[in-house]
């Protein structure tokens, strides 16, 4: 894997030495940079303050597990990250699924099982990471702000889910707007409409975070492709079969 | 002054988990990923309050490390808590006869390892 490929990041929450030993081998093969926590406080700190692609939890069924998963789902940067739960039985499946786990595996885990488990969820992690990527841009535009009219400004960040619009006009959360812009270096015109989800005021300017509510499908595909070409490279494929670890 | 712990284990995840938890408990922790490095750190420093030693290590086994630590006057007095994948009472006794203060089964909950380390350091 080349050096400019961005590694996925994970958090493993387990104090079970057997689980740690197995997951150590498996996660290394998937090139997922993993932090390990065996205590609630450090796990809560990580899910709240670190951008994670995946949370892998030893689902003890206790309040700790639920608290950690809830904290991740409530964190802006990790709300859509992939959560994997290792459970002891059907009762724990129910509580893990209810709390928002995306993938479930039964314990005890071995290397082969855990590899299949990670393989199944890896595509989801990559998809979420691609959607979360944003590019710094400088695109002068005139936004059509519903109820206000045309507002001149520029797009300073762009992602497939939204953009940051900077202007000298006051903006408010929940305002709706429409913007048409050309992607830098192309002639592709993109028409988006969306809603202001947050507003900041750096250096006497207004910066509005806009979440897209509508992008024409063909233009969305062009935007996705452009983002892919202008973002740090992600691992493009799953673990190669000949790199698969053997069961120990 | 914070108690100083040397952790010798080749499992990166286990090392990282124990290191982070021991630091959070207020200990100063140094880590080594194999027997040779662990022995070198123990000899160079010599002022550890506790050594957590895995038995199955690359380059030099935990048994050898324990023997050499106990033979060296500079490190002989440092309590060594052995982490073993085996749970047999006979092996536990042999390790304790070789100078280990206790032998813990590595497959158990790591919080039990942390609790044992805390108990050893309080006894010291």
Structure commentary:
By secondary structure, chain A is of the alpha/beta class. Chain A has helices at residues 17-29, 40-49, 63-74, 90-99, 111-132, 217-229; strands spanning 8-13, 32-37, 54-58, 82-87, 103-106, 134-145, 149-159, 162-167, 176-182, 189-200, 206-214. Chain A folds into 2 domains: 8-132 and 239-243, 3-Layer(aba) Sandwich (Rossmann fold); 135-229, predicted glycosyltransferase like domains (Thrombin, subunit H, Beta Barrel), CATH 2.40.10. Chain A has 6 helices and 11 strands. The radius of gyration of chain A is 21 Å and the shape is elongated. Chain A starts with 7 loop residues before the first strand and ends in a 19-residue tail after the last helix. Mean pLDDT of chain A is 87; it is low at 237-248. Chain B is an alpha/beta fold and 124 residues long. Chain B has a single domain (4-123), classed as Response regulator (Rossmann fold), CATH 3.40.50. Helices cover 46% and strands 21% of the residues of chain B. Chain B is built from 5 helices and 5 strands. In chain B, helix 4 links the parallel strand 4 and strand 5. The longest helix of chain B has 14 residues, at 110-123. Chain B is globular and about 30 Å long. At the A-B interface, helix 1 and strand 2 of A face helix 1 and helix 5 of B.
Question: Can you summarize this structure?
Answer:
Chain A has 248 residues and is α/β, with parallel strands linked by helices.
């Amino acid at each position: 894997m080349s050096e400019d490929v961005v590694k996925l990041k994970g958090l493993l929450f387990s104090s079970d030495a057997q689980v740690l030993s197995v997951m150590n081998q498996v996660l290394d093969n998937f090139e997922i940079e993993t932090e390990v926590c065996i205590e609630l406080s450090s796990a809560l700190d990580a899910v709240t303050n670190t951008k994670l692609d995946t949370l892998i939890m030893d689902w003890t069924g206790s309040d700790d597990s639920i608290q950690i998963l809830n904290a991740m789902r409530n964190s802006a940067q990790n709300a859509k990250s992939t959560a994997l739960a290792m459970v002891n039985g059907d009762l724990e499946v129910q509580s893990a699924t209810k709390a928002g786990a995306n993938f479930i595996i039964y314990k005890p885990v071995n290397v082969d099982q855990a590899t299949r488990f990670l393989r199944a969820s890896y595509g989801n992690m990559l998809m979420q990471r691609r959607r979360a990527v944003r590019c710094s841009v400088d695109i002068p535009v005139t936004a059509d702000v519903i109820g206000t009219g045309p507002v001149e400004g520029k797009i300073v960040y762009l992602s497939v889910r939204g953009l940051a619009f900077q202007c000298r006009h006051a903006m408010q959360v929940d305002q709706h707007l429409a913007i048409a812009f050309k992607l830098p270096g192309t002639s592709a015109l993109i028409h988006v409409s969306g809603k202001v989800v947050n507003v900041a005021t750096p250096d006497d300017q207004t910066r509005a975070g806009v979440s897209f509510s509508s992008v024409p499908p063909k233009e969305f595909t062009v935007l996705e492709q452009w983002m892919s070409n202008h973002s740090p490279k992600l691992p493009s494929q799953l673990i190669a079969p000949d790199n698969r670890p053997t069961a120990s | 002054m914070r108690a100083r712990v040397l952790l010798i284990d080749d499992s990166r995840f286990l090392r990282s988990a124990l290191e982070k938890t021991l630091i959070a408990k207020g200990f100063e922790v140094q880590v080594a990923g194999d027997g040779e490095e662990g022995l070198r750190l123990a000899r160079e420093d010599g002022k550890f309050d506790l050594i957590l030693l895995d038995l199955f290590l690359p380059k030099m086994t935990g048994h050898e490390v324990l023997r050499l630590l106990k033979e060296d006057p500079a490190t002989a007095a440092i309590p060594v808590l052995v982490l073993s994948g085996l749970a047999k009472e006979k092996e536990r006794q042999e390790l304790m006869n070789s100078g280990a203060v206790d032998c813990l089964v590595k497959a158990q909950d790591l919080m039990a390892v942390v609790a044992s380390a805390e108990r050893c350091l309080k006894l010291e």
